[in-house]
Amino acid sequence: MRILYGVAGEGFGHSSRALVLAEHLQKKGHEVVILTYGQAYDVLKKRFKTFKVKGLHLFFEKSVLSTKKTIFNNIRHFTKNFLRWKKFYKLMQEFKPELCISDMEPIVPILRNWYKLPLICIDNQHRMTNLEINVPREHAQDYLLAKGVVDSFVKRADYFVVLSFANARIKDKNKNDTIIIPPIIREEVKRIRNKTKYGNKILVYLTKKDSSILEKLKNIRENFVVYGYNVKKKQGNIEFKTRESFLQELKNCKAIIATAGFTLISEAIFLKKPYLALPLKGQFEQTLNALFLKKAGFGDYTENLTEKEIVYFLHKLNFYRKRLQNYKVDYNKLYKVLDKILKEFEKS
């Protein structure tokens, strides 16, 4: 089949997923064109046919998501796409897609409506709309806003393939179109699983520089290796490293303290590493990841990190490890589900 695959360009989680999925689709004999932007475009254009669009981005002020800036700038960017409608028309006429896939990318769902094509939605964001979740009262406003955004991206699809690392119940209204699967794990992470060990360092990954967190780490009698500052240096019990050594430290660390991105949490669970999540304020998806993480017993989370919370988390490492060792899922389920759905559309 000819497949038009829309991939969100913000962050590296979506592009990591697309690298794995697009390669699988091509191995199965399907022809794929990826529509994307931003960081994802830079990653995916090296491996696949890509079509660049103006994408949607998150805007922060002092590490807190700015709703006003995000909405204003994205409306401006999004409307620019449709001033280029001739390029979209040319893409659809020349490629003639038979099916669309969207990973939190809103233009492909619009094109599928225009051309009356089937759509498969594959992401972790639709946990907010299709699954039963208990949201703490203090996060209710962020949840409703995030849920509204997800709904505006993809309200209807033939199938929603929802990635989740914790058990959840599908809403009754979505039982016929929603399938829950374990997260997708990169091949390079799969390759190190049998070599992983619990060393003497704690991996710390920060997407935004935060000196207050570093001050707390200095006061704890542990060794920390910190990523996110893009420097190589050592300060007491803290060692700063750059991206190229990240996988090695992920393999050998005894625990992780990091922002609550879905991909890194998923990889930590796969490698059986306890995780203390630091969700970015105002970004409910990260809060949801943190809530699921704690519910599963694979770690904990905090929105205002203290030394006491770090010490308490480290004190419970054995408990988290036991829970992680008991977590057994089929990480190849997505490929089986996707192949089955595609065969269904090929017959129709």
Structure, explained:
- The protein is an alpha/beta fold and 348 residues long.
- It has helices spanning 13-27, 38-44, 67-81, 85-95, 107-115, 127-130, 140-153, 187-192, 211-218, 246-252, 262-270, 284-296, 307-315, 317-325, 333-347, and strands at 2-7, 31-36, 49-52, 60-61, 64-65, 99-103, 119-123, 131-132, 159-163, 169-170, 178-181, 201-205, 223-227, 233-235, 238-240, 255-259, 275-278, 299-301.
- β6, α5 (107-115) and β7 (119-123) form a beta-alpha-beta unit.
- α1 packs parallel to α2 (38-44).
- The protein is globular and about 60 Å long.
- It starts with a strand and ends with a helix.
Highlighted features:
348 residues, 15 helices, single chain, seven-stranded parallel sheet, seven-stranded mixed sheet, alpha/beta
Secondary-structure map:
Elements: E1 2-7, H1 13-27, E2 31-36, H2 38-44, E3 49-52, E4 60-61, E5 64-65, H3 67-81, H4 85-95, E6 99-103, H5 107-115, E7 119-123, H6 127-130, E8 131-132, H7 140-153, E9 159-163, E10 169-170, E11 178-181, H8 187-192, E12 201-205, H9 211-218, E13 223-227, E14 233-235, E15 238-240, H10 246-252, E16 255-259, H11 262-270, E17 275-278, H12 284-296, E18 299-301, H13 307-315, H14 317-325, H15 333-347
Parallel strand pairs: 1-2, 1-6, 2-3, 6-7, 7-9, 9-11, 12-13, 12-16, 13-15, 16-17, 17-18
Antiparallel strand pairs: 4-5, 8-10, 14-15
